Amino acid sequence: MIDYEEKMQKTLDNLDSEFGTIRAGRANPHILDKLKVDYYGTPTGMQGVANITVPDARTLMISPWEPKMVKEIEKAIQASDLGLNPSNDGKNVILRFPELTEDRRKELAKDIKKKGEAAKVGVRNIRRDANDAAKKANKAGELSEDEQKIEEEKIQKATDKYCEKIDKLVEAKTKDIMTV
Length: 180
Known about the structure:
Layout: H1 4-20, E1 36-39, E2 42-45, E3 50-56, E4 59-64, H2 69-79, E5 86-88, E6 93-96, H3 102-139, H4 145-178
Antiparallel strand pairs: 1-2, 3-4, 4-6, 5-6
Helix pairs in contact: 1-3, 1-4, 3-4
């Protein structure tokens, strides 16, 4: 039997990391996780070229280990879809997070809900594949009818458990976004 629960957990973990990149009007270093900086011709993650600190709730300070990386970091941020304008003091890149408007909060909440639904669809697809595998094992004589039913019940319980976890994750992130 394939380890369907492991796949469901990966779906949940992926959703959680996606939610980490959604900015809630507060400084969160994880929004930079997917950004790549040109480091001597090699795309490198932000953590690989700089130290990222949070001096206050609405500011991120990126301190490159090499001063000439300031321009490359600014370029990477401007080219991204973060919607932030970096500034620098010669040594550090500073990102200031503006207060989110009510419309933007609602838009982000809808996006969060969409991502949650997509994750649930992923979990249900894993359920379908696991059920198909159980049916094939039955036809091949590896599982009896009763064992197949028991396996399908386990698969359904796991599906329900992960869908519930996704709902809780969506609810928590939506609450975080809607909090002023």
